[in-house]
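hi! just following up on the protien thing from before. the input was this:
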Amino acid sequence: MEQHITKQLSVKHPTCSYVMTRKETLVVDLVITTSVSFSADFTLTMKAMGGNATVRCIVLPKKGARVKLTTHQIHIAPNAKSDVLVKSVITDASVITFQGNVSIGKRAKKSDAYQKNENLIFGDGGVIITSPTLEILNNDVRCTHGVTTGTIPDDVLWYMQSRGISEAGAKALYIDGFIRGSMGTIEKW
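and the predicted 3d structure came back as:
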């Protein structure tokens, strides 16, 4: 069975959770676009043996907003897989704090959990604070995490501008490619 959930997290609806109780393939797309500061939370609990979940999140603050996003990947059942990818784009003096938590229980052998945070900062004053946390209580698992943060390379902007694309257009294309590169098209949000 396959399931796809798309949710926009906001000040009024800052939390989302999913408990996988049967073997299925799940894709969750989370979107945070805000000019208001708030804390968001997503929890995924893997209670189904052989379950597979992919969580993709886009964070796009503006007007100096401070966004704190906390994710929880909780593996209780064995042979379950979860991947979390959080992509952030800061175009102004906004601040994003990402706390990614992975918890593998004692009975969750052969679990596979992956967490990645990719960030793009351009403009002045933008800040990314990222902190992965792993709690692994079974030694027969695979858990990995990674973080990247960068800016739009000057040579990429120059190349696009030399092909007749305006600076604003070049930045927009780069951001679109950054988001779509691993996220794909997010359906109906």
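The chain has two helices and eleven strands.
The longest helix spans residues 167-183.
cheers
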